[in-house]
Every structure is written in C-alpha cells, then in structure tokens.
Amino acid sequence: MNDSPLNFDDLQTSDLRTGNDQTYAEKFDRGLNKKLVQKISSGKNEPDWLLKIRLAALEHFEEMPLPAWGPSLEKLDLEKIRYFTSASDRQNAKSWDEVDPEIKKTFEKLKIPEAERAVLAGAGAQYESENVYHSLKPEWEKIGVIFEDFDVAVKKYPELVRKYFRKCVPIADHKFAALHFAVFSGGTFLFVPKNVKISQPLQAYFRMNSMNQGQFEHTLIVVENGADAHYIEGCSAPKYGSESLHAGCVEIFVGENAKMRYSSVENWSADTFNLNTKRALVQKNGTIEWVGGNLGSGTTMLYPCSVLTGENSRANHLGIAFAGKKQNQDTGAKILISGKNCRGSVISKSLSKDGGTSTYRGIVKIGKSAENAIVNVECDALLLDEISTSDTVPQIQVENPTASVTHEASAGKISEELLLYFQSRGLDEETAKGIVVNGFLDEVVRTLPLEFASELNRLIELEMEGSVG
Length: 469
Fold this sequence. Notes:
- By secondary structure, this protein is an alpha/beta fold.
- It folds into 2 domains: 8-302, no CATH class; 414-469, no CATH class.
- The protein contains 12 helices and 23 strands.
- It has helices at residues 14-17, 34-43, 48-63, 101-109, 112-119, 138-141, 150-156, 158-164, 175-183, 416-424, 429-445, 450-464; strands at residues 122-127, 130-136, 146-149, 187-192, 202-207, 214-215, 218-223, 228-236, 244-246, 249-254, 259-267, 272-274, 277-282, 287-295, 299-302, 305-308, 314-323, 328-337, 343-352, 357-366, 374-383, 389-398, 404-413.
- Strands 3, 4, 6, 7, 9, 10, 12, 13, 15, 16, 18, 20 and 22 form a 13-stranded mixed beta sheet that branches. A 10-stranded mixed beta sheet has the order 2-1-5-8-11-14-17-19-21-23.
- The chain starts with 13 loop residues before the first helix and ends in a 5-residue tail after the last helix.
C-alpha cells in the first residue's frame, strides 16, 4: 500500500494517460509566427520590454539550425505544435475550490492538494499554457518569500523580475532556448529573502493534456545571501501517438552562503520531445544541488548547468534516466568554474530496457582563474536486456594546472549470480531485479524527501514491469 501524500501512480491510469476532454484546444492555432507571439504578449498585458525580448528570440529561433548532435529530432514537426493553449478562464486560484472542476480532478488524482497540506510550504499547478493554482503558506509570505506564477510576478514585481530574467540563460543560447523565450507562458517565480531558510519544499506541477501541445513554462528562482530553499517540479502528459513538445527554462541565482536544491521528476509520455534548459549561477560559498528523474519521454535532451563564479562555491548533480522501448534519454550535466576553490560532483545513473538508449553527455570546463577546482564525475549504466544501449560522451576542458578532475563510467548487466542468490532465498526473478535496481538507484533517490522518493521508486517499478523474459 502506498501511503505517500503524492500519487504519481495515477499517471498510469487510463484517463490520465489518454487525457481528459481536449475540445478546448481546437480553438487555438498550430504553428508559430510573429502574430502569435504578439497575441500571447498582448493577452497577458505584458510590458513593452518583454514583448521586445519575445520578438528578438523569435528571430533567433528562425535563424538557428537544429542541433547537429544528440538524438534525432526529425520526427518533431514544429508546424503541428500548438504553442499556446488555455483550458479554462480560471487562472491563479489561491484556493482549490476556485479551480475549474474538470482540471481540478487531474490534480486531485495526483494528490497535489493533499501533498500541499501535508509536506509543502507552497504549491503551484499549471495546465497547458497557464497556471490554474498558486499558493504559499502565510508564515512564509509574512517574512518576504515570494512564490508566484511567473506571469503574475511580471506584473506584481516588474523590477525584480527584470533584474534577473534571461540573465542566466541568454535568449540565443540555442534554438530551443530561443523558442522558449519567444512563446514562454506560466511557470514559477520564487524569491527567498536574505537569511530566510524555508524548512518545507515548494512544488509546482506541470500538466500537458492535449494532442500536439507545446509547454514552455519559465521558472525563475532567486535565493539571496544566506537563504536556503528546496523546490520540486513534477511533469506529465498523455500519450496520443502524435508528437508534443516541452521546452521549459529554469534560471536559478544562488547568493553568497546560500543553498538551493532543485528536484525534478519528469514523467512525460513517449510521444513528447523533452528539450529543456536549466542553469544556475552560484556566488561565494553558495551551493546548488540538482536532483533529477527523467522517465517517459520518447526523446530527452536535458543537461542542467552550474556556473560557479564565487569562491568556495559548490555544485552537486544527481540524476536518474530510464530509457524504455523507442526512448532516447540523452541527459547529463554541465559544470563551468571560474571561482577559486570550487567543488563539483556528478552522479548519473541510467537504466535501459526493451531497446532503449541512454546517454550521459556532460561538460566540465575549468577556467584560468579557477584555482584548486575539484570535480568528480561518476556515470553508471545498467542494461536490462541484450538489445538496449548506453553511452557516455564527456567533454573536459581544464585551463588551470591546479585543478583536479576525475571521470568514471561503467556499464553492465544485472549479475546472474546475484539473481540466483535472491531466487535461492525464495524471491521470484522480477522481485529480485527490482531489489537490484533499487539498490543501484539508492544514491540518488535517498536525497529526495521521503514522500517524493517513494513515488519515484514507484514510477521506476512501473517502468520495470514486464522486464523479465
């Protein structure tokens, strides 16, 4: 029995995997052009400076080529995508009672309201292109914490948002970053004031529901000097047999002596292209922790990046990727160091079954000024059959002779001797494999709060079903 307040299990039920009513989507056009970008901006009553950014990003997107490396994107037909869709005229409710009843059902099945009451300092819920719910517990609001839908934050805190927006990820960083900045909608703005330490996680959940939907939420997190926070994102989408696109963006600013943990469990459907961009800028004595679980999507290209500019700053990356049939999980991490005495670590775990492909793709770059930098990278792959594949593509550039970089990679199968041992103790083969897989992933899973770790384990179990034989 699963007693966790969250319930990602229900992502596997028929109504969530096949979607709810989506007739509303037919009102929105497919394809991308200048008129649509202007319409998105005017519909949100955005300031002129934001529209200018959108239009400049659109120009970059149209001029830039698709990536010439990594998984193939030839099946992604950008003309089929709906770049903006709204399922309800009820946005940014502060109470679940105010949320559209049909939309609310989805989040109740995921137990998001229950999780908010039990373990979260605040929660947000986005459905298609717009937030339908966002709320922060009063005790944190009273001491200056801001947790808002990004679209709302632009209006309520324009100078604060403008100070940080696109300063971590430039609009021309790559083609899908440019696309994001042209059509972004919804997302999260989290601001944690100086020396405030939030004792409970905050969570946002993003749901793509209709066929050929594109979701482009923008997450902007600012953790001031001496502050501490943990933010968790969850994502899902139904399977329709026709491609959808997720190209969100996460920008994180970690102040001096501050600590930020960003955790993500992404469980998109197999017809989703997950082309996300995540980056953190870390100041003196600051720490960024990335914890990620990537499952479900047919094609993923995701490489969270830590830029360590401050002396004694830290970056820890922990990731799990699961590649099943017709899935290509191309994930990894980037650590870029210019500050002195910085430390970075990467622990990446991947599982492949039914012919799935998992790749660790990483960059470590240590600049000339990065004296005494130390980075350790460890990539482990577990192949669950004879037809799945795994690869490691590291790029290491060191410009300071005092630096130390280690990279270890391993790939293997579940030991037959170990399976026989478990079976000799009365366990069937599928249970035995599950125990081995849980042990393999434990180093990453145990970093999550208990409620979220149990749900990630359950998702892995669901992906593992049928792996025997």
